[in-house]
Amino acid sequence: MKHFNTALAALLLLTLAGCSSKQATTTAVAPAGQVDDARLAKADSEPQNWLAHGGNQLAQRYSGLDAVNLQTVANLKPAWSLDFDTNRGQEATAIAVDGVLYVTTAWSKVYAVEGKTGKTLWQFDPKVNGPHAARNCCDVVNRGAAVYQGKVFVATFDGRLIALDAATGKQAWSTATFDPETMYAISGAPRVGAGLVFIGNSGGEFGGRGFISAYKADTGELAWRFYTVPGEPGKADGAASDEAIAKFAQPTWFGKYESYRGGGNVWNSIVFDPELDQVYLATGNGYPWLRTFRSGGKGDNLFICSVVALDARTGAYKWHYQETPGDIWDYDSVADMILADLDIGGQSRKVLMHTPKNGFFYNLDRRTGELISAEPYIQGINWTLGIDKKTGKPIDNPAARFDERKQPFTASPGEGGGHSWNPTAFSPKTKLFYLQAFDYSSGRHLPRPSFEYVKGLDNIGTYHFASHMPGEAPPVPDPKAPKPQANLIAWDPVAQKAAWKTPGVGGAVLATAGGLVFQGHSRNVVMGELSAYRADTGEQVWSHKTPNAIVGGVISYAIDGEQYILATTGAGGGSIIAGTPDVRARQPGRLVAFKLGGTAVLPPDPPRAEPPVIVTETWSATDIEQGKDLYLNRCGRCHGLNARSPNILPDLRRSPTLASKDSWRSIVEDGALQGNGMIAWKSFLPEGGSERIRGYVAGEAKVEAAALAAAVTP
Ligand code: CA
Q: Which pLDDT belongs to residue 241?
């Protein structure tokens, strides 16, 4: 904890005084983080705050503030910005309570920030174990904190759930949600309600059986745990899920039991529904990806790729709806779930809306789990022939079952999905659901002939990131194939069709009572832009460049009658592997706040990165080819496909270490930088492997240098 400021200390003293003396209750200053169930249930009545991850408990990401509107938005200018102390990926949605923002950064650090000025009130660093960073796909991101009963809750990348005093940032309790030696990680935000803190985990690409836990907010004691997929047949966990696993899930899994098999990780969306006293979890893909290796090539494999409803207080199973039975395409169902009461067929229905990666927009009855409707929100879906309205299940497309056919298959959507985890919004005013979506995206799936689990690697049963099978000629692109197209979509959930579509690649959205939809964007992967659109037509009415790309959440709050639009900025997550011809110097993530008539100047765009390092040594073609294969399977998921990195995690072509055999080996093989997550890879590499990887990267550095030289030559 740093920067403990004196004003806050005075406030704390006042608060403490309030405990012993009734006179002090006349003070206008509220104690920090006093959010309870009553307040959360009526969050919409205090639009100046953003009390929960999704704004309110319906998770609608809708702000009732309207000072920034169609008439005034042209005057929306930067109010302040705050540099974080890390340049890794940022995905958080901030919480705003009574003038204070609580936000998390990469490495699961927490900031409490004055919403009016951007001044840091306190910081908390859980000192995440560096090497744990290698246990997830997409950088050490964190999607946010929860604020409840005077505490701030954060879940750390290495698996701890920590409660902090909201006034001081001092740790109140900490509990391990999993054994740190296992292949789990946490990037998701905890959610709160009914006196409990709910938290899941990632691990669906590494061999980790998904589960969600509920801890008592006041003590950190485990209240219940629910596993989303079965463990060893006939062996109970002594968990809230035992009955549902035995009754529903276990009969849908086949083949030999393997201790690593699983998935179904609850890595993003969890919603507590106070009205029905239920908690909903959205689950990820199965592990390994291929059902032939996971479940003897058959079965729905419950509860992967599903929405599951539990009794919030006991974790007892209420209902489930599986969106992608027997998934093999990485169609995580972890997208934000949004609750609303909708008039459908002349009836008011309690609906859970969901837009998972598989490309369908689902309306589920949240009392029963009944499928009300499902229609594709994107074009080009080919994994299913459609949803059978009678059974509520998708109709299998045999051609898409590439693992059984042992043939490559180009699936649409691709593994990025029609839409992934990026926050979505629903406006009760326009009755439209806003999301980023990708038409005609595709992903090439190449089934491996056999599967071997190696702890520590993201081995999923396919040749990941490759375009063709080993020994096969690269596929010839079909010029008539529809082009992939990214859009911001306003979806009418009742009519199940788009009200409008605006082309463009973007991330999180926020809907406001000012008739606007805000969306964060990236420019050349690492720089960004915040834009506003008319909520009724999709016309862009405002935008402002930001030094960092905006992947994280956008929220709104108000202080002293002024409305703020706040974005957590900083590329990362999936974009760490996105190549760009315009590589920039690494820069810190930032909070960026806008208000009407703001006068702040944002930091400039980061300068161009240092040029590639030219190495004079030479390697044989065979060594380089082997180095390329090792790079793709070991290094590519963090340092960029084909060595083309946007330099969020270091671009190795530009690393001074590239020129030194010894330094390179000490980092790659011996873990000299393991504190940053660069573990010792020796046990995962053949003898001489790191040197062959260096040969491959050195070649790519020359290619990059030539491309840069050609670009500046007229
Ligand atoms: Ca996945």
A: 98
Host domain of residue 381? 31-471+484-596
Calculate how far, in angstroms, residue 433's C-alpha sits from the geometric centre of ligand 1: 24
- Which amino acids are annotated catalytic? 330
Q: Assess if residue 416 is contained within a domain.
A: yes
Write down the pLDDT at residue 713.
Answer: 64
3 state SS for 266-322: CCCCEEEECCCCEEEEECCCEECCCHHHHCCCCCCCCCCCEEEEEECCCCCEEEEEE
Give me ligand 1 centre to Cα 648, in Å.
21
638 with 681, same domain: the answer is yes
Backbone angles phi, psi at 34, to 5 degrees: -80, 75
Tell me how far the alpha carbon of residue 612 lies from the centroid of ligand 1, in angstroms: 33
With CA atoms as reference, report the closest residue to 184 among 240, 238, 134: 134
For residue 473, what pLDDT is reported?
87
Same structural domain for residues 378 and 511? yes
| Cα-to-centroid distance, 417 and ligand 1 (Å) | 10
Question: Where residue 643 sits, what CATH number does that domain have?
Answer: 1.10.760.10
The residue out of 596, 630, 665 marking a domain boundary is: 596
What residues in the chain have per-residue pLDDT under 50?
1-28
199 and 246 both lie in a single domain: yes
Which tokens in the block code for residue 300? 């729905």
| Cα 285 to ligand 1 centroid, rounded to whole Å | 5
